[in-house]
Amino acid sequence: MAWLVTGGAGYIGSHIVRAFLAEGIDVVVVDDLSSGHADFVPDSVPFVHGDILDGDLLMHTFAEHDVTGVVHVAGFKYAGVSVQRPLHTYEQNVTATATLLAAMQESGVNRMVFSSSAAVYGTPHTDLVTEDTPKSPESPYGESKLIGEWLLRDQGIAVGLTHTSLRYFNVVGSGALELRDTSPHNLFPLVFDALIDGRTPSINGNDYATPDGTCVRDYIHVADLAVSHVAAARRLDAGEPILPVYNLGSGDGVSVGQIMTTVSAVTGIEFTPVIGPRRPGDPDRIVASGELAARDLDWEMRHSLEEMVGSAWASRQAASAPHI
Fold this sequence. Notes:
The chain has helices at 11-22, 55-64, 79-84, 86-107, 140-159, 187-196, 222-238, 256-267, 291-296, 305-320; strands spanning 2-6, 27-31, 47-49, 67-72, 111-115, 162-167, 170-172, 202-204, 216-217, 219-221, 245-247, 254-255, 274-276, 285-286. By secondary structure, it is of the alpha/beta class. The chain folds into 2 domains: 2-171 and 220-247, Rossmann fold (3-Layer(aba) Sandwich); 172-217 and 250-285 and 302-320, UDP-galactose 4-epimerase, domain 1. The protein has a 7-stranded parallel beta sheet with strand order 3-2-1-4-5-6-11, sandwiched between helices. The protein has a 3-stranded mixed beta sheet with strand order 12-9-14. Helix 8 (256-267) packs across helix 10 (305-320).
């Protein structure tokens, strides 16, 4: 028996694959490589290069690898871009999830861990986001993730799908030198690319109602995130009680200014960030509680900010090193 990780060749998915392997659990990967990398998948892991919009491919994969559950990470993850590409976002995140669930139902696979997003909350009017905080997504991306959660809920009612959805904000760091965040939109890659190119990183506004004037957000280490995905899968396998949603939150958050200071210290590159204008709609602070996930899913902030930055920088440097 094996667990299928959709999007397992991506930054987050590849860490989840390794977390499964570390627990001695067989895993298989399906990824279309639209943003993933084939070399992120270990040689020992079966890799199916394909699209989860292809239901026949999924059913064949379930049968061939005796799949017992799915960790669904694949999706179009760029909230800002989703505003310009709503139909593409819904196809990749809603239609594809429905196709996956249909293939699971047809194949008798009834366990899913869904990699959701804190984007479902939009701009919450509370200092600490909990699972019960009202959902008010502000982009097609956030909306598509919330619809994904609804699809799981409805399949649970209709056919007995056992499931949970994990919501989180900003994922950073690296659990292995060969794995890195290659997103063109995320903060750490943007900052590192600027430093490597000799440019000065920028901050979007420094007049927010926070201690240093820059936005405060949840930043969590990707390896910690991966551990909780596996813990959720184990809980489903064991038939233990599990909530429909969990926040993987830090409980306190860090500011963009703190990140810049830490990046300078870790890399040894001195710089003073350029202060640009605010981005429309950016709230002062968004931080989530991880209390329920800590209780049920082995959730813990095991890495300091310095370790998050240091591991991410090491993987970025490794990617730039000449291969002999």
